[in-house]
Design goal:
Elements (H helix, E strand, L loop, with lengths): L8 H22 L4 H18 L4 H25 L7
Length: 88
């Protein structure tokens, strides 16, 4: 007995499109706060969305780039002041 209907192809695309947008948003937020946490999450979400063939490829690529930028900014700040946090 099957309780739910099988997922359609459109549902799978919607999921990957959501991952692409989420990676973009998290990557953008990661430039401002919690770059150690949000950067890697953005990279993983963007990679999975691209691997599954999202229709929002540009957003996934932006999310990937921003996630990498989050880690680069973190490394730069660690070199400058030796901490893992922003110092204002």
């Amino acid at each position: 007995m099957q309780l739910t209907a099988p997922a359609s192809r459109r549902t799978g695309l919607r999921d990957t499109d959501g991952m692409a947008v989420a990676s973009f948003v998290l990557g953008l937020l990661g430039l401002l706060v919690l770059n150690l946490l949000l950067g890697p999450i953005a990279i993983v979400l963007a990679s999975v969305a691209l691997w599954r063939g999202t229709e929002r490829r540009g957003r996934a690529l932006l999310g990937l780039g921003l996630g990498i930028a989050d880690l680069v900014v973190l490394a730069a700040f660690m070199q400058v002041d030796g901490s893992v946090s922003w110092s204002l």
